[in-house]
Design brief:
Layout: E1 14-20, H1 28-39, E2 43-47, H2 50-53, E3 62-66, E4 69-73, E5 78-84, E6 90-98, H3 104-118, E7 122-131, E8 141-145, H4 148-153, E9 157-158, H5 167-178, E10 182-190, H6 199-213, H7 222-238, H8 241-257, H9 260-280, E11 294-295, H10 297-300
Parallel strand pairs: 1-6, 1-7, 7-10, 8-9
Antiparallel strand pairs: 2-5, 3-4, 5-6, 8-10
């Protein structure tokens, strides 16, 4: 039995989750939830027991000093609550952690236990995958669900993905079996520049989340970060003729595939978002990831710049990301992202 002392009664709560690891190319998804926690000053009210779900040789604890005392931070998954103000206030239950090493079904059941106790009405899981998408174009974000009725009501894709899955897909299926409406939002990250951070993809996920939940998310420095990120990748790609030629090929393929109707829908969504921000207060420098603007990669990586990796013309991923964030699934957007 989960007891949530100190958590007030929530208003129309939605659970928004993201997990570092295979489902988090460029750290785009986990950074999006971290942004929500920071902008809305989320307060952590629960954490899952790290001993139950993590292999500490894979996800190692870290040691730090506090007032001269050595302490340890254990890898885990934490839950926090934020209240979104405005004409229609509502609460978000934010889940941010690391993809578990073991006991995935128990992990999902524990999260669903919290969702049930808090009266969560919808679960939204954020993910990012590696794809054949150019960094110079709007970040593709797919919204998918395994619930046909929910797909019709929220204008989402009904997932048809088959293949390897991560905790995002497992959690969404657990929600479906438990009768909890669940949606996954997937951003496609260019595989040739897969190392984190990717503020452009993070911004695209947050914009899509805004549209899905009909709320306004403070963007902070993300638009500036996204501009600087794209400028940095532009400069580095221009220095390598092979990468520049490959990016041009991706641009041509993307532009050919996009229909005029799709562009019209994107413009309409952007205009609706602009009106929502204008009515809610000063826009604060809105630059959409769908519009291709980026940000301060250099601030998050002092002394470094994003490094495009050589394109793999043999059909491989071309990714140079050796860590968990660079190992997200690639190519699943060809048949639709996994659920």
């Amino acid at each position: 039995m989960i007891e949530l002392e100190g958590v007030p009664e929530l208003i129309d709560p939605v659970m928004v989750a993201a997990f570092e690891g295979w489902n988090d190319a460029g750290d785009a998804a986990s950074t999006a939830v971290a942004h929500l926690e920071r902008e809305w000053k989320g307060e952590v009210f629960a954490a899952l027991d790290a001993e139950d779900y993590y292999d500490f040789q894979v996800n190692r604890p870290t040691v730090y000093m506090e007032d001269g005392v050595r302490k340890i931070t254990w890898p885990t998954t934490r839950l926090s609550v934020v209240r979104v103000g405005g004409d229609k206030p509502r609460d978000l239950v934010l889940v941010r952690g690391i993809e578990p090493s073991m006991r995935w079904r128990s992990f999902c059941n524990e999260l669903l236990g919290f969702a049930h106790e808090l009266g969560v009405e919808l679960v939204v899981v954020l993910g990012a995958l590696l794809g054949d998408t150019p960094h110079t174009r709007p970040v593709p974000v797919s919204g998918v669900t395994s619930d046909a009725d929910l797909a019709r009501r929220m204008d989402l894709e009904e997932t048809k993905y088959e293949g390897p899955t991560g905790i995002v897909g497992v959690l969404q299926e657990a929600c479906a079996h438990a009768g909890v409406p669940a949606v996954s939002l997937w951003a496609a990250v260019p595989h040739y520049v897969s190392q984190p951070p990717n503020p452009k993809a993070t911004l695209a996920l947050l914009n899509r989340l805004e549209d899905l939940l009909d709320l306004r998310i403070p963007q902070g420095e993300l638009p500036e970060d996204a501009r600087a990120w794209q400028v940095g990748v532009d400069q580095l790609a221009a220095e390598d003729s092979e990468v520049a030629e490959y990016v041009q090929t991706l641009e041509e393929a993307r532009d050919t595939a996009e229909l005029p109707e799709a562009s019209g829908e994107a413009i309409a969504r952007e205009f609706e978002r602009y009106l929502r921000r204008r009515d809610a207060g000063p826009p604060g420098g809105h630059a959409t990831a769908e519009g291709g603007e980026g940000g301060s990669f250099l601030r998050d990586n002092p002394g470094g710049r994003p490094r495009p990796s050589k394109p793999d013309t043999s059909g491989g991923s071309g990714s140079s990301g050796g860590g968990a964030a660079g190992s997200g699934p690639k190519g699943e957007d060809e048949d639709g992202p996994e659920d």
